[in-house]
Amino acid sequence: MDFFTKVAGRQEVPTPGNAVAAPIFQTSVYAFTDIDEVDALLGGQRQGFSYTRGGNPNFDALAQLTASLEETEAAVVTASGTASLLTAIMALTSGPARILLSREIYGGTVGISRSILGRYGCHMEWVDTHNLQELEGALDGPETVLVVESISNPLGRVSPLDDIITLAHQHGVPVLVDNTFATPFHARPATLGADLVAHSVTKFMGGHSDLILGVVAGSRARIAEVNRIVDSAGFTPDPLAAWLALRGVRTLALRMERSSANALQLAAALEGMAGVRRVYYPGLSSHPDHEVARRLLSRGFGSIVSLSVDGGYAAVQRMVRRLQLVRFVPSLGDIATTVSHPAVASHRELSAEEKAAVGIDDSVVRISVGIEQVSDIIADFRHALS
To answer: Which helix (H) or strand (E) holds 147?
Structure first.
């Protein structure tokens, strides 16, 4: 066989079935021995993989674990958290729709609803998910979907999901819950009736700031529709990212248990520090949703603490520059503690009036608490705020 043929030829190495860590299936396409195999596979008569845009063993492994943790029938992995939200909203609607967004929600969700889906006839409306009477009035209308977070970004609001979902379903409105902040460790919205649950796996599920990925979980029928959109639109992740995410999820319980405990101690310490106007953490009795959080969340209150700093933007800038252990990062969910500025980063999609309506201004800082020794984190903020 010629050298050129050898280097271009097939490589067939048996895959051991007893490997502790799953292999990375870094392939775009799969080979077959005859046409009937492909026909049966694409027609749904047999299981397998043909083209990675439509499926890959690494995607399936992560999806199956996520579905198990969320206590749903199925899940599908997407290229990013934004893609998971977009495909979930599309799967819950059949055309131009009213998208009801919880008043306090991630700015990227606003961007999806207003800037992308708005081009195709969808109409975004704000709704107060803490006021059931107002919510019920908003639910009446054609082709409506409700989007809410289990723990809101960035102020840690916890809506009464059990009551909200029951009320929405009474009006025939499906509910999408973004469970990124809580993760399945603290909340499982599908057990309360949520139609779909979305995650930015980039954050706590992955946990190491080394991948971009999303996932949607729900019933088999709902996920089949999400998967159809992911495949057709090409919102497909990379196998390596899925493999990394699966590795990250295996330590999710340990990381969330530690970082959530750290967050509670940090939040309590920040309440007594000079220069802090207010601390937002659902584990504190001072938080407006503390009792709801105690009822709906399990094993703690999450790893996100936000605070309002006296002196506004200038004071926040000085604090950020004085932090030594904690770094400024426009994301969250790492094993290391980081800070972000919602008005500049995560919520820049919102107008000044929309930010003010939920209490986000230049003084607000979001802290993603990590797994370090909590006394070191507290000391770093005390130094930076002094």
So the answer is: strand 144-149
Provide the token pair at 304: 């996100």
The strand pairing partners of 41, in sequence order, are none
Q: Give the Cα separation of 230 and 236 in Å (integer).
A: 6
CA dist., res. 200 & res. 212, Å (int): 8
pLDDT in tens, 335-357: 999 999 988 776 667 677 777 77
Q: Summarize the confidence of residues 130-143 as an average pLDDT.
A: 92
Mean pLDDT of 51-80: 96
Q: Which residues of 141-166 are buried (b: 16+ CB within 10 A; e: fewer)?
A: eebbbbbbbbbbbbbbbbbbbeebbe
User: CB-based burial of residue 309 (10 Å sphere; 0-12 exposed, 13-18 middle, 19+ buried)?
Assistant: buried
CA separation (Å) from 62 to 41, 217, 238, 244, 354? 22, 11, 12, 10, 36
Q: Residue 126: which of 109, 116, 115, 142 has the closest Cα?
A: 109
Domains of the chain by start residue, with CATH:
35-249 (3.40.640.10), 252-385 (3.90.1150.10)
pLDDT (tens digit, 9 = 90+) per residue, 245-287? 999 999 999 999 999 999 999 999 999 999 999 999 999 999 9
Q: What is the DSSP string of 167-195?
A: HHHHTT--EEEE-TTTHHHH--GGGGT-S
pTM score, two decimals? Answer: 0.94
